[in-house]
User: Which sequence fits this backbone?
């Protein structure tokens, strides 16, 4: 791994350069053995902001890339290929530059004696806490190939369900944005021109026409002010949503939206059941599994609920009783978990619940799309039709009377 450094020599003169080392600590030690005083050292090729932090935009790795990587790692470990050789091979195969650099760093760390899970944990923007703990469990049990296989299966399921939910919302959002764009364009360009013709005629116009013309005049006169307020309000809302209280309030609001809230609840329940099942299959203790699931569930509401469930289980309560104390977890899930606890088949029950909620998410997505599409299309047509009718009917009356 290559590091850029800034140092002071024995005379106090500044120097810069680059050095090859397994880690930043090794690079510093090597420079100090030369009698140099290190002032700064950074990994070469890393994009940074003015604050010295990695730009998050450039750190994004697609979930699909991590899924494929996990599957290939499982295959290579099953073939008894050494860990160092595995990561060296994969670093030359992946297409993502960020993932390639991360795998190179991981290979260097493994060569330096680091455990694989510890090396992975240095890249949280790629490998989640859930991923790292699954690998750690595989290391401790001597079943790395199985752990990577579990991870690949789990990530594929999660990716499939999440992608289906996201893709279902793209079309409605596009139609809504198009609707508002068309309405604003008509109110600021077409309606003002047609309203001049109506005004010059001096004839009495219907009430709905006067309303549309007034709204059009308001947008023309104060459109810039409205845009400024909208941008400022959006920025304030964005900053507020990034706070803990804002995230919680926004999540509760979204979960309360009819149909959409039901879809997201089923998505989170599927994620909870699948994560717990996968970690129990890897022999991770249930309390730790709940804590990790809390970190990756993706909903502040469910994070709080799972945190309380984890504390209750740690205190000796049954998992089913702990889940039942929170309305976020439906009765059917609580009842099935209770059956699993009593029969000693909790892992299998969680797998069944995971499959059930994945099917529920698919059905909810299809229902939501089937409901939203015709409503949006009809709404777009009615909106444009009302605007045109409000000005074209008076114009038609004027032309008919001439």
Assistant:
């Amino acid at each position: 791994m290559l590091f850029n450094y800034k140092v002071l020599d024995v005379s106090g003169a500044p120097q810069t350069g680059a050095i090859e080392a397994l880690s930043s600590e090794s690079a510093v030690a090597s420079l100090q053995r030369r009698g140099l005083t290190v002032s700064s050292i950074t990994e070469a090729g890393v994009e940074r902001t003015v604050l010295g932090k990695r730009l998050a935009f450039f750190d994004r790795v697609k979930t699909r890339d991590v899924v494929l990587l996990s599957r290939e790692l499982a295959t290579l470990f099953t073939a008894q290929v050494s860990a160092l050789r595995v990561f060296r091979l994969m670093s030359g195969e992946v297409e993502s530059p960020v993932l390639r650099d991360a795998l190179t760093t991981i290979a260097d760390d493994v060569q330096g004696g680091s455990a694989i899970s510890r090396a992975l944990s240095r890249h949280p923007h790629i490998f989640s806490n859930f991923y790292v703990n699954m690998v750690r469990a595989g290391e401790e049990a001597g079943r790395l190939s199985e752990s990577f296989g579990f991870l690949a299966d789990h990530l594929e399921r999660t990716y499939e369900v999440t992608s289906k939910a996201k893709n279902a919302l793209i079309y409605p959002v596009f139609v809504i944005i198009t609707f508002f764009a068309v309405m604003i364009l008509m109110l600021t360009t077409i309606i003002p021109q047609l309203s001049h013709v109506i005004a010059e005629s001096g004839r009495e116009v219907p009430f709905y026409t006067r309303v549309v013309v007034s709204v059009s005049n308001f947008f023309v006169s104060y459109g810039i002010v409205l845009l400024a307020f909208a941008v400022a309000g959006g920025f304030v809302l964005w900053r507020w949503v990034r706070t803990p209280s804002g995230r919680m309030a926004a999540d509760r609001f979204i979960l309360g939206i009819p149909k959409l809230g039901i879809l997201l609840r089923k998505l989170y329940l599927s994620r909870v059941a699948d994560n717990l099942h996968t970690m129990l299959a890897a022999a991770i203790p249930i309390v730790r599994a709940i804590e990790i699931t809390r970190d990756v569930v993706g909903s502040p509401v469910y994070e709080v609920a799972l945190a309380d469930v984890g504390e209750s289980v740690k205190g000796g309560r049954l998992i089913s009783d702990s889940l039942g104390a929170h309305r976020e977890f439906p009765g059917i899930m609580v009842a099935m978990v209770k059956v699993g606890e009593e029969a000693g088949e909790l892992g299998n029950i969680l797998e069944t619940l995971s499959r059930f909620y994945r099917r529920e998410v698919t059905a909810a997505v299809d229902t939501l799309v089937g409901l939203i599409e015709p409503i949006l299309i009809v709404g777009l047509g009615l909106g444009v039709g009302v605007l045109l009718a409000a000005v074209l009917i008076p114009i038609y009356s004027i032309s008919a009377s001439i």
